Amino acid sequence: MVAIYPGSFDPITLGHLDVIERGVKLFDQVIVAVLCNPSKDPLFSQEQRIEQIRYCTRHLSNVEVDSFTGLTVEYAKLRQARVLLRGLRVLSDFEKELQMAHTNQTLWDGVETVFLATAKEYSFLSSSIVKEIAKFGGSISHLVPENVAKDICSYYS
Ligand code: ADP
């Protein structure tokens, strides 16, 4: 069974990586799909994000990293994947994620969204928090993979 893990990943954090590492034990293949959202102004380009994710998941043989634009369900159909993998941290995630899962099901009733609860040590962690800390010169090495920490340091230096 193939699962798609869609997201902005701007940048990938250890919380995302934890979801991927647990996802590959549940599914035959996990496709990490970087969403290109024209209304967002990302810190890293789509290509940079893909490269960052590829590098930090290189130890996982059943992970593929790709990107897409448009509707997630259309991308899922294209990749013949019936599962969307998402992470849940706090109550506000639940509301947003449930709405998205229901919306996606109205667009394609063949799709199921599977949620993984965040690892408790990463329940506070988001890409925005990482960017906020880095902007003010704080340490982020405990929050993101090493290659991403280097990229962020060079961005803000
Ligand atoms: P999006 O813009 O689609 O929400 P994100 O990159 O912010 O993209 O998140 C992608 C998915 O990963 C979402 O389902 C989000 O809830 C989940 N996620 C983000 N951070 C964590 C974390 N620390 N632990 C578990 N899941 C997370």
Keywords:
157 residues; binds adenosine-5'-diphosphate; five-stranded parallel sheet; Rossmann fold; 43% helix; alpha/beta; globular; 20% strand
Describe this structure in words.
The chain is an alpha/beta fold and 157 residues long. It has one domain: Rossmann fold (3-Layer(aba) Sandwich), CATH 3.40.50. It is 43% helix and 20% strand. The protein has 6 helices and 5 strands, in the order E-H-E-H-E-H-E-H-E-H-H. The chain has helices at 14-26, 46-56, 72-78, 91-107, 127-135, 146-156; strands spanning 2-7, 29-35, 63-68, 83-88, 112-117. The chain has a 5-stranded parallel beta sheet, sandwiched between helices. Strand 1, helix 1 and strand 2 form a beta-alpha-beta unit. The protein is globular and about 45 Å long. The model has no long low-confidence stretch (mean pLDDT 96). The structure holds adenosine-5'-diphosphate. Adenosine-5'-diphosphate binds next to helix 1 and strand 4.
What's the gist of this structure?
This protein has 157 residues and is an alpha/beta fold. 43% of the residues lie in helices and 20% in strands. Strand 1, helix 1 (14-26) and strand 2 (29-35) form a beta-alpha-beta unit.
CATH fold name: Rossmann fold
Helical percentage:
40-55%
Fourth CATH level, the homologous superfamily: HUPs
- At CATH's second level, what is the architecture? 3-Layer(aba) Sandwich
Q: How does the helix and strand content classify structurally?
A: alpha/beta
Q: How many DSSP-defined strands?
A: 5
How far is it from the N-terminal to the C-terminal residue, by CA? 43 Å
Largest sheet: 5 strands, parallel
Rg calculated over all Cα atoms:
15 Å
CATH class: Alpha Beta
Bulk shape: globular
